[in-house]
Specification:
Layout: E1 15-20, E2 25-33, E3 50-56, H1 63-69, H2 74-88, E4 99-105, E5 111-119, E6 122-128, E7 134-140, E8 144-153, H3 160-166, H4 171-181, E9 196-206, E10 209-223, E11 226-234, E12 240-243, E13 264-266, E14 269-273, E15 280-283, E16 286-289, E17 295-297, E18 302-310, E19 314-320, E20 325-332, E21 334-335, E22 344-345, E23 350-353, E24 364-371, E25 374-376, H5 391-413, E26 417-420
Antiparallel strand pairs: 1-2, 2-26, 3-4, 4-5, 5-6, 6-7, 8-9, 8-26, 9-10, 10-11, 11-12, 13-16, 14-15, 16-24, 17-23, 18-19, 18-22, 19-20, 20-24, 21-23, 24-25
The chain binds zinc ion.
Zinc ion binds next to loops.
């Protein structure tokens, strides 16, 4: 096992002050330079005179099954189950999520503590008193969040995913970036060699050990029509949104591409030769390649106004988003359960599954955007932003952005550095 290396704060580290909006708390943002990597801590950790053993809960396990395997009596098990239920709100164990840690005094010593671990951020410690009653003590683990910076460039023949992976951006963060930028650009058609991008995202640590990644904090992409940049920002009412550098809402009411990273197989046009019918007619939407069964999310929040079948569209769903915009999704193999005419859907909610019903040469999503009753090109139509900032929040945002930008300059100069939150 590798040893956790010492963290060294560079003498040159930039120190800046960040105003956290709403809370008006001053937080020192230190850019910290780290030498070396971190090792993983294995399942069995030995202290000087205690033995720790961690058990993963798998399908078919129950609390009593595991506890009796570790030598606990029926009385102990009942006492543990009772205190977990009453004092920690834990009614049972979840397979593939929960872990149980058994701590003994010495290699073969008596059990001194049992810890239920529902997440890397919570431990429920169980101890037995002299009368033989078990008590529990839930502990929330201190989350140490660091912001890291990764930058990359699209090379010839690259996809954003490949370039992002090469730049060291984890898959989950890349998926989040896709989701954020899907309002602004089309990753299939708008990606070119030479385009640069950068992402600042959270890494969560506990006791110097990386546990997981948090959210995308800043994303910047040199798109065809210019740089697209978004900042994650918490408003004074504690709601979180993404904003452009001027503080305008970056999240649009509709996504231009409802499914991430899908190839455009046919663009919007007023004239095209229909692949099935053979004659020329307008293509009122955009086709995305999507294997049968691909989940189709709603491009925006709204209400289902039509769900049915016709010869051209096959199975289709139409959603009204506001007084101006509607979207339509065609050739679906099936509809999502509980999505019917009148259903209110959230942005990103799965409404159906891709297929090739109706007039289609193969499985794909045909996606239409209808503005004031007229079909428009989803890729170019001007979309309204949601979640705009009021004057007070905008002022705080701009201060926050300035501070963060300065701290990020330190990261650009030293890619191994991070911002300590
Ligand atoms: Zn189409």
């Amino acid at each position: 096992m590798e040893k956790v290396k010492e963290i060294i704060t560079s003498k040159k580290a930039t120190r800046v002050v960040l105003w956290v909006a709403g809370m008006l708390a001053v937080v020192a943002l230190a850019v910290v330079v780290v030498f070396g990597g971190f090792g993983r801590v294995g399942d069995i950790v030995r202290g000087t005179n205690t033995k720790h053993e961690v058990v993963d809960v798998v399908a078919g396990d129950t609390l009593s099954k595991i506890l009796s395997k570790y030598g606990l009596s029926g009385n102990d098990i009942n006492s543990i189950a009772a205190t977990l239920r009453t004092n920690a709100g834990v009614g049972g164990l979840r397979a593939n999520r929960d872990k149980i840690e058994f701590i003994r005094d010495g290699e073969d010593g008596p059990l001194s503590k049992i810890v239920i671990i529902p997440s890397p951020w919570r431990r429920i410690e169980l101890t037995c008193d002299d009368a033989g009653n078990w008590n529990c003590n839930p502990i929330d683990i201190q989350r140490d969040t660091r912001l890291v910076y990764r930058q990359g460039e699209i090379l010839d023949g690259d996809s954003f995913y490949l370039a992002g992976s090469r730049a060291g951006i984890p898959a989950g963060i890349l998926a989040e970036v896709y989701d954020l930028l899907a309002f602004e650009m089309d990753f299939e058609r708008d990606v070119r060699a030479g385009q640069k991008f950068s992402v600042v995202f959270e890494e969560n640590y506990a006791d110097g050990r990386k546990i997981d990644n948090g959210s995308v904090v800043v994303v910047s992409f040199d798109a065809l029509r210019g740089n697209v940049k978004m900042y994650r920002y918490r408003k004074s009412d504690n709601t979180i949104g993404y904003y452009d550098p001027n503080g305008n809402g970056a999240i649009k009411s509709l996504k231009r591409t409802p499914i991430n990273n899908a190839r455009v197989t046919s663009s919007f046009s007023t004239r095209r030769k229909h692949p099935v019918l053979g004659f020329t007619r307008a293509h009122k939407g955009v086709d995305f390649r999507a294997p049968t069964g691909t989940p189709i999310p709603s491009a925006g929040a709204g209400r289902v106004v039509a769900r049915g079948y016709n010869r051209g569209h096959g199975n289709f769903i139409k959603i009204r988003h506001n007084g101006t915009f509607e979207t339509l999704y065609a050739h679906l193999s099936k509809f999502a359960k509980n999505v019917k005419v009148g259903t209110v859907v959230k942005q990103g909610q799965i409404i159906g599954y891709a297929g090739a019903t109706g007039l289609a040469t193969g499985p794909h999503l045909h996606y239409e955007v209808i503005k004031d009753g007229k079909h428009v090109n989803p890729m170019t139509v001007k979309l309204p932003a949601i979640n705009n900032l009021d004057a007070a929040n905008k002022k705080s945002f701009l201060e926050y952005r300035g501070t963060l930008d300065k701290a990020i300059e330190g990261l650009v100069k030293n890619p191994k550095a991070y911002i300590q939150m």
